[in-house]
Amino acid sequence: MGTALMILLEAVTKTYGAGLPAVAGLSLAVEAGETCVLVGPSGSGKTTTLKMINRLVEPTSGRVLVGGRDVAGVDAVELRRGMGYVIQQVGLFPHLSVGDNVGTVPRLLGWDRGRVRRRVDELLELVGLDPAVYRLRRPDQLSGGQRQRVGVARALAADPPVLLMDEPFGAVDPVTRRRLQEEFIALQAALRKTVVLVTHDIDEAVRLGDRLAVLAEGGTLAQHGTPAEVLARPASAFVAGFVGAGATLKRLGVVAVTEALDPAAGPDRHPDGVSVPAHASLAEATEALLAAPVSAVTVVEGTRSLGVVTLASIQSALRRQAAGAEEEGEER
Description:
Blueprint: E1 5-15, E2 21-31, E3 35-39, H1 46-53, E4 61-66, E5 69-70, H2 76-81, E6 83-87, H3 98-102, H4 104-108, H5 113-126, H6 131-134, H7 144-155, E7 162-166, H8 174-191, E8 194-199, H9 202-208, E9 211-216, E10 220-225, H10 227-232, H11 237-243, H12 247-252, E11 275-277, H13 282-291, E12 297-301, E13 304-309, H14 311-331
Parallel strand pairs: 3-8, 3-9, 6-7, 7-8, 11-12
Antiparallel strand pairs: 1-2, 1-4, 4-5, 9-10, 12-13
Helix pairs in contact: 5-7
């Protein structure tokens, strides 16, 4: 991932009336192509922060820069047309077809009819909806998961560099939510948009985020780091409490299996024949070890064996990762 900054919040504060701030002195940098997840309890200013990026909410003080430009000096309509925006309730226009919903922003930008249609079909295919089947359907003819896919397609229609997502998978059942999360991960791996995503669910944040911004009540930044760093070394008692029990199990899901190769075993395929791909997590390797059960599983990349992992090597990898997070925290 590059080091170019796409979004920068500088000491941003938002206060409504004479009340306490919804967001207080928040400074945060989001790199281009990164998924930054704003996570925290109710009342921590997550949605307010998101809306200040596209000027749906104006900050009381501080600056928001996108692509190096202070958004306060950019026409709000122009700014929003350059950003995708996905919300929990999707917000599709009920009187428009799926195709017309997805093509809304390109039409506003003056694209010709043929170009809009091609883009609509491309995006519907990208989110797993056959254009021939779904293009002419109305939102009330779709399931919750299908409506959410259409919402993502609409947000991506004009190929914006920035995607803002507010609890995008919160209104669907757990099975559909997990599937949509997996589809988002695959989409982001292919498109590498700069994404700011809001959730109150630490498991979802850990699963989707390249970095987490943990917000405390009153909109202050409690910790900013990779999921592995936040889980291994919470910056405060508040963060530790928010992460909750099972942090070690969560860490299994964010550490790559290649970090746990057993140096003593060599690259030869283990005789038990159980394998996991090199892009798997330690959670997947642990599941394979316990399900077989076998003493080791082979890590493979294509047809090539990279080595094996064992429960002992997984434990060692977690200890190393925790120690690395601690050293980085001390340097900061």
